[in-house]
Design a protein that fits this description.
This protein has 294 residues and is α/β, with parallel strands linked by helices. Helices cover 46% and strands 14% of the residues. The strands form two sheets. An eight-stranded mixed β-sheet has the order 3-2-1-4-5-6-7-8, with helices on both faces. A two-stranded antiparallel ribbon has the order 9-10. The longest helix has 20 residues. Bound molecules: 1,4-dihydronicotinamide adenine dinucleotide.
Length: 294
């Protein structure tokens, strides 16, 4: 699939990473967020991460300059009109995504793919807000997008099989490994399975069976997990994880996904995880220490 200009909507944790992945492959990217300060901060963070790679000898300074020069920051969604591939990574709320997809559908040529990085919103429901649902598809990167190999390609009810093939090829072009879901479920494969595990870890904490550090230690040492489940929720974002789990619980009615009230309490209190340096752990400390949560 020949993509020359990508458009990424949402410059948070995922959008910024996805923009970097594309720019690293020579694609010009327009990175858009409603919040000007978010785009500026995201570009600064990308630069910091890339500069660290130069220091480690993994990349040259001119490569970094090239990558950064290909990412254009903006707050104007209308820039989507100039792109030949669109991926949305905004807040995990199906109503908000539907409004955005209706706009993107109006402003982009009909052959442009409209992809969403949603974890647990329905692709078919998002697509239903457009006049051309056959070009709407889930393209689910994992966090951090630059590092994680997997991208789940998730068609909805109306997605054209040719779009599925084009997106799968594009994932490979980006140097990632695609897994195509055979039909739409909630949250694809990896996130759905993982959500149950992460949720259980929060319940174990809530029930007082283990503290934050011990739960993470138990899963790292006993189940060979590279990160503990609570560290991982902090990386994902408490708010993002809560929205996903809530969605799974609402749609499947399965108690495995019943979100623990602790998550809601933390989210409402601004304990959003690593992105604000405060979640299950306090990231202003080095190494991070467990927060007081009761
Ligand atoms: P985030 O909260 O870091 O970033 C979302 C960004 O979208 C914010 O900067 C916000 O200002 C912006 N935004 C909100 N409404 C907007 C609009 N109408 N137009 C433009 N920008 C808008 O969220 P994150 O973590 O990057 O998640 C984004 C999406 O990716 C969600 O659907 C999430 O479920 C999914 N996802 C998240 C993963 C994670 O580990 N955090 C992993 C894989 C997918």
């Amino acid at each position: 699939m020949d993509v020359k200009k990508g458009f990424v909507l949402g410059a948070g944790i995922m959008g910024a990473g996805i923009a970097q992945v594309m720019a690293q492959k020579g694609i010009e990217v327009i990175l858009v967020d409603v919040d000007d300060s978010v785009v500026t901060r995201s570009i600064q963070n990308l630069k910091k991460g890339l500069d660290a790679r130069v220091e480690k000898g993994k990349m040259s300074a001119s490569e970094v300059d090239g990558i950064l020069s290909r990412i254009k920051a903006s707050t104007d969604i209308k820039e989507a009109a100039n792109a030949d591939f669109v991926i949305e990574a905004i807040v995990e709320n199906v109503g908000v995504k539907q409004k955005i997809f209706a706009q993107l559908d109006e402003m982009t040529p009909a052959n442009v793919v409209l992809a969403t990085n949603t974890t647990a919103c329905s692709i078919s429901e998002i697509a239903s807000a457009t006049k051309n649902p056959s070009r709407v598809i889930g393209m689910h990167f994992f966090n951090p997008a630059v590092v994680m190999k997997l991208v789940e390609v998730m068609p909805g009810l109306a997605t054209d099989p040719q779009i599925v093939s084009r997106v799968t090829e594009f994932v490979e072009f980006l140097g990632k490994e695609p897994v195509v879901t055979a039909k739409e479920g909630i949250a694809g494969i990896a996130s759905r399975v993982l959500a149950a595990l992460l949720n259980e870890a929060v319940w174990v904490l809530e029930e007082g069976i283990g503290g934050v550090a011990d739960i993470d230690k138990a899963l790292k040492m006993g189940a060979n997990q590279p990160m503990g489940p609570l560290e991982l929720i902090d990386l994902i974002g408490i708010d993002v994880h809560l929205a996903k789990t809530r969605n799974l619980y609402e749609k499947l009615g399965d108690p495995r996904y019943r979100p623990c009230y602790l998550l809601e309490k933390m989210s409402n209190a601004g304990y959003l995880g690593r992105k604000v340096k405060k979640g299950f752990y306090d990231y202003t400390q080095n190494p991070p220490v467990p927060m007081k949560l009761n």
